[in-house]
Design a protein that fits this description.
Layout: H1 7-39, E1 44-48, H2 59-67, E2 71-73, H3 93-106, E3 112-117, H4 120-130, E4 135-141, H5 152-155, H6 158-172, E5 176-177, H7 190-199, E6 203-204, H8 206-209, E7 224-230, H9 237-245, E8 250-255, H10 260-263, H11 265-273
Parallel strand pairs: 1-2, 1-3, 3-4, 4-7, 7-8
Antiparallel strand pairs: 5-6
């Protein structure tokens, strides 16, 4: 058997090798361009917690987003979470709004997707009234929404408002609303419930009594998405009805507890990535 190749076969073989190598390199370059394009346009998210919670509650959403190359900020409001040592009678709704505005200003944030969960939606509305030029899109995650001159207790069911006032009076003389059982948020998994029990802290009643002062309509003309959870969370039912009437908003529903970022983080991530 003749193992020697002719000059023509050698040349053709080299040509095939070079062609295959060029094709592989071209494919690699294309893949790198696609990946680079995705990584060169990261989004910036500010995720704001609701009552009793803190920035910690966004961990299961924030970490995957950061791993995908996005910038994610999860501030904690004064007097809650790791800032619970700052609780005082001076913690008001306006303090909460200024907390959030300060994050934008001190971190020099622009083109932000701003997410407010539950009570945090009221704070988001207040911030959007002051710094709309820094916000790209607002997401209300099963949020409370109030308009100018309204308080959180104006939009939740009357029995809920009265119940929280009574619990605050019994537990702290009317200063703080004690932490509810995780089941109140629809959280039933033992691991999730233990996490909330360990991290949630009493919430200042004054922030629910205080009335929002804004100069513009809710959302301030910015793109808005309202995400409601199913089954319904009673304190936000009337707010959902309002959100549905806003034809300039996007309205979505997901199967999750009220604390969707805890028990259904991927559903929240998918929505945020799509904005």
């Amino acid at each position: 058997m003749n193992l020697r190749r002719s000059p023509t076969e050698i040349v053709n073989g080299r040509r095939r090798f070079l062609a295959a190598t060029a094709a592989a390199l071209a494919g690699l370059a294309t893949a790198r361009r696609v990946t680079g394009a995705a990584q060169s346009h990261p989004k910036t998210f500010v995720l704001l917690h609701g009552a009793w919670h803190g920035g910690w509650c966004w961990t299961r959403v924030a970490e995957p987003l950061r791993a995908a190359g996005h910038r994610v900020y999860t501030p904690t409001q004064t007097g809650l979470g790791e800032r619970s040592h700052l609780m005082s009678p001076n913690v008001t709704l306006d303090v909460f709004i200024q907390d959030l505005v300060n994050v934008f200003e001190w971190e020099d944030l622009h083109d932000v997707i701003l997410v407010g969960h539950s009570f945090g939606g009221i704070v988001v509305t207040g911030a959007a009234d002051r710094i709309p030029h820094r916000i790209r899109h607002i997401v209300y995650l099963d949020s409370l929404i109030v308009r100018n001159g309204q308080s959180a207790f104006d939009v939740v069911p009357a029995d809920v408002a009265e119940g929280r006032r009574k619990l605050a009076k019994v537990s702290s003389g009317g200063a703080l609303m004690p932490v509810p059982d995780p089941k109140a948020f629809g959280i039933t998994h033992p691991v999730d419930a233990a996490w909330l029990n360990a991290k949630c802290t009493p919430h200042p009643l004054q922030t629910y009594e205080g009335r929002l002062t804004v100069k513009n309509a809710v959302g301030n003309g910015l793109p808005v998405t309202y995400v409601a959870v199913k089954p319904d969370y009673a304190p936000t039912i009337s707010v959902r009805q309002y959100a549905r009437t806003r034809k300039d908003w996007n309205y979505l529903e997901i199967q999750a507890s009220h604390a969707a970022m805890v028990d259904q983080p991927q559903a929240v991530i998918d929505i945020l990535r799509g904005l």
